[in-house]
Amino acid sequence: MTHEHALALGKPNWEDEIAAREGFVLAYSGQLHEANMRSRHAADLAMQTSQPGRAALWRIGPALWEGFVGNEAAAREAAAAALALSIDRDVEYGAGLALALAGDSSHAQRLAADLDQRFPQDSSAQSVYLPVIRAVLALKEQKPSEALELLRAAAPYDLGTPLCSAPAYFGILYPVYVRGLAYLAAHQADEATAEFQKILDHRSVVVSDPIGALAHLQLGRALAMKGESARARTSYQEFLTLWKTADPDVALPEQARKELAALR
Predict the structure, then answer these.
(1) Whole-number Cα distances in Å, 88 to 60, 63, 129, 203
(2) Whole-model pTM?
């Protein structure tokens, strides 16, 4: 990565993209502060070449990372920064999902409604983006069955690479991850295990999106729910190893350690 960074320096449309990818790599190990700095740098570089839409995409990554780990205020701030630059389809999807994860349901619903109205024939919007946003909103309302039903539309595309993933790197296997969360909320441990294992089995597709690391934690929770303590311990430990250099103010590692200690 250091070599690629050096090659990209000073090259428009390459330096910002490499910086954004560096952000994802850092976020994968829980180093969110440095990851956010790299993404902001990427956005600044894009603005220097008068590309606000591209800059907005680079701000979506942090919004989603913060949302997935439960840093709601940071997720909302990053989503707002992205939307201030662009309301393109993929930006609106990422921001809507981040805001749904952050509990800003009314704003997320408005963005979903706008996506639905503007892109009624768009396969990505109708079959992946909207189901994922609405499923997260249903989970926030403690309606896992509704979330699972909403995600049925995305199932045929689970292993696909959505348009938002190129060049912005986010979105791959998000329906699978959210479906796993829904199964966990519904106390369907076998099904949750299968979803999170699907993510781990496709590491080369997920690449450096932080859900690849978070899937270890969620799999541990699913296995613990099933009573498979030995396998659960392994999953928790794999997550903690990946996040051994995580920022000290990120709560997930401490939560994982407590859950691991409680296993029998």
Answers:
(1) 12, 16, 13, 28
(2) 0.96
